[in-house]
Amino acid sequence: MAESVCKLLADLHAERVRTWAPEALAYNINQRRHLVETADRARFIKPGDRIAPFTLEVAGGGIVALEEVLRDGPAVLIFFRFAGCPACNLALPYYQRNLYPALRDLGATLIAISPQIPERLVEIRDRHALEFTVASDRDNALGHRFGIVFTADGPSQQAMREKGVSLGDITGTGTWDLPMPAVIVVAQDGSVAFADISPDWLVRTEADPVLDAVRALSLAVAA
After folding, report:
1. Nearest CA to 118 among 54, 57, 167?
2. Which of 72, 105, 170, 221 counts the most CB atoms within 10 A of its CB?
3. CATH code of the domain in which 46 resides
4. Alpha helices for the chain (secondary structure H)
5. What is the pLDDT of residues 74-93, one digit of tens each?
């Protein structure tokens, strides 16, 4: 049976149900429900949209430019929250196991993107020995263009402050903004071939639909 990222995240939630205090669990569930209910889906990037060139800072140094990536094949962009996010620490290794090798064989480039500053993204890259590029979207610039950025609501901010931390301190951005988990497949002409955005961070895109989208691009080129 194929491994499922949503099953991994469902197991994470089930463990929280067993071990977390009821008020902490309710807070987490309500946060995610709020995002699902208030997401402005009309702003989400969608298939058929065209992506203007961009560059991102790579964790560990250097930059990655979309124009250069697309010279070699399609690009698969995975947006995640930050290096310490428990769900991201399940999702990115899942994509390493189930997406990266097949994309490499298809000539596609996988890039994982977070607004967290590059120096702090090295942690998640090295922890899981990720072979694909991990890059920083400074100020959520690309995330805003794609319509997938949200700002933590007042109760969420207050809850973190009561713990003596802030999201901006964790990410190094100084803001309460994060991208919703998203996977976007970009064809070599810069058009979006596939886009899946999840307001609930415990729901992520499975590998198979992404691979199907990239394979379809390969077949179109060969035809």
Report:
1. 57
2. 170
3. 3.40.30.10
4. 5-19, 22-38, 66-72, 88-98, 100-105, 118-127, 141-145, 154-162, 167-171, 207-222
5. 999 999 999 999 999 999 99
The structure's pTM equals: 0.96
Consecutive H or E run containing 135 = strand 133-136
Tell me how far apart the alpha carbons of residues 210 and 5 are, in angstroms, rounded to a whole number. 13
118 touches 63 (CB < 8 A) = no
Is the CB of residue 32 less than 8 Å from the CB of residue 200?
yes
Count of the separate structural domains present in the chain: 1
DSSP class of residue 117? -
The domain in which residue 154 lies consists of 5-222
